[in-house]
Amino acid sequence: MGNRASILIVDDDMGMCETLSDIMEGKGYHTVIALDGYEAVEKAKESAFDVILMDIKMPGMNGVETFRQIKKIHPETAVVMMTAYAVEDLIREALREGAYGVLYKPFDIERMIGLIEGVKGGGLILVVDDDLNACATFKDILEARGYKVGTALSGEEAIEIARENRHDMIFIDMKLPTINGLQTYLAIKEVNPQAVAVMMTAYRREMGDLVEEALKKDAYTCLYKPFDVEEVIKLVDEICRRKRQRGQRGELCSADSL
């Protein structure tokens, strides 16, 4: 991906398209506009885009249908869905099929830029731990490596974040305040089965059964606290490298295939 990422903005609202285009161009991106799904598919046939910002609710062909068509042409393109409506079924469907994330109108522009930078960077990672210091440490270490890192302090918060973002990797502490790490992982897996999950715990014996169950359900591995930082970095780099290789071939990545 070049230094100046190319973005296709797809929305039947011309004013919205122009506003987003002006903002993205001001941030240094190259933008192209399409006013419906059919035009978006034609634009995708003409050029490969790094990111597509796709409105879900459009006349004729909705955003999910458009996403499916574009995915056949350019499976590696990151597509971010946009909506002002409560269309949870369509959102869930898009995320299951590989959409990168969801933005809700009116937009938080900084969050939008963050999603795009996550596409450009090494990968999008979510750290789930009720220990704020542990989250901050993970975030500092991984962002220094070029990854985009989000944090959640509870299972419920993590599930909500996972519904709106397509993470490459999720680190989940097994011992969380309300729902445990296994329950959190299984709920996230429902909305984003492609994410690679790494379980974490300081309680090897107490959490042993839950860890074993998570691994049976395709969690990638379990890290035991205190961590060896270099081993964590090595693990993340390796997983994201393999995911990128599979993405370049248009394949979905699963824990089994890794």
Describe this structure in words.
The protein is an alpha/beta fold and 258 residues long. It has 2 domains: 6-120, Rossmann fold; 124-248, Response regulator (Rossmann fold, 3-Layer(aba) Sandwich), CATH 3.40.50. It is built from 10 helices and 10 strands. The strands form 2 sheets. It has a 5-stranded parallel sheet, with helices on both faces. A 5-stranded parallel sheet has the order 7-6-8-9-10, with helices on both faces. The protein is 45% helix and 19% strand. Helix 2 runs parallel beside helix 3 (63-73), helix 7 (155-164) runs parallel beside helix 8 and helix 8 runs parallel beside helix 9.
Low-confidence stretches: 248-258
**CATH topology assignment of the largest domain:** Rossmann fold
Distance between the termini: 24 Å
Number of domains as seen in the coordinates: 2
Helix content: 40-55%
